[in-house]
Amino acid sequence: QVKLVESGGDLVQAGGSLRLTCTASGLSSGNHTMGWFRQSPGNEREVVSCIGRSSVSIYYTDSVLGRFTISRDNAKNTLYLQMNSLEPDDAAMYYCAADVSIYDLGWGRKCSSLTKTNWGQGTQVTVSS
To answer: Do 38 and 46 touch, CB atoms closer than 8 A?
Structure first.
């Protein structure tokens, strides 16, 4: 059974940093494209960043580009999201996802979840202004 456990969420002041961690079990994460999604109250879940199996393909949503860094350690079955220069709009529940799709369109790269995507329970990030 696949299990994804997120940690690292916290209350932080605007401009601060957090590092989210997702530990996977029940799968070899190195065989799966992974990602981070977030959802704030009243909004739909949105993709934040995704990373391919060998860390070559990476996607960031425009609003976090240059501030967030996704990485993975396949030997540890662990996914990370380093978040710097946090803004109040970054406040949300952050979810780890296994088996997402990164795809290239003529005008750019996208990432999306799939029907087979496995989700963690989430970790809360709160940013005070």
So the answer is: yes
